[in-house]
């Protein structure tokens, strides 16, 4: 079985190709508020600077994900996540939260995303509610 980091990278690239990716804390919050059932997966990314406002946002997003049965992981390399998902320069600075929305009705579910859901389910059974994943290098 491939590593969770490789599965995450593959799921992000697949979602990006299918235009099912939302990048940014505020953009993600808007999607979660408007249509929470459309959200399949959430990635929270930290960098080396501690920002209390960002931590408050993360706490609220995590709570929302728990309440709405959305799988959630954390990555510690926001820069690497931004390299994978950013289409525009402004997305490089706000890749702290990335959402993957559900595929269109009747389309195939991404196998990498299915592996991530299983990984999150197994982590929750071990009381690791927001597991941390390391993204692979380039």
TrEMBL record:
GO terms for cellular component: cytoplasm; nucleus. Pfam families: Ribosomal_L7Ae (PF01248). It comes from the Eukaryota. InterPro entries: GADD45, Ribosomal_eL30-like_sf, Ribosomal_eL8/eL30/eS12/Gad45. One of its GO terms (biological process) is regulation of cell cycle. Coiled coil: none annotated. Residues 7-88 form the Ribosomal protein eL8/eL30/eS12/Gadd45 domain. Belongs to the GADD45 family. This is Ribosomal protein eL8/eL30/eS12/Gadd45 domain-containing protein. It comes from Champsocephalus esox (pike icefish).
């Amino acid at each position: 079985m491939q590593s969770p980091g490789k599965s995450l990278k593959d799921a992000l690239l697949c979602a990006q190709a299918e235009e099912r990716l939302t990048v940014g804390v505020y953009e993600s919050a808007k999607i979660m508020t408007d249509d929470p059932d459309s959200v399949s997966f959430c990635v929270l990314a930290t960098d080396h600077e501690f920002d209390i406002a960002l931590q408050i946002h993360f706490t609220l997003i995590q709570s929302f994900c728990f309440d709405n049965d959305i799988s959630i992981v954390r990555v510690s390399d926001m820069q690497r996540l931004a390299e994978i998902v950013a289409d525009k320069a402004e997305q490089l600075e706000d890749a702290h939260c990335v959402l993957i929305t559900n595929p269109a009705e009747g389309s195939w579910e991404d196998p990498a995303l299915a592996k991530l859901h299983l990984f999150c389910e197994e982590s929750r059974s071990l009381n690791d509610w927001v597991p941390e994943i390391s993204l692979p290098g380039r």
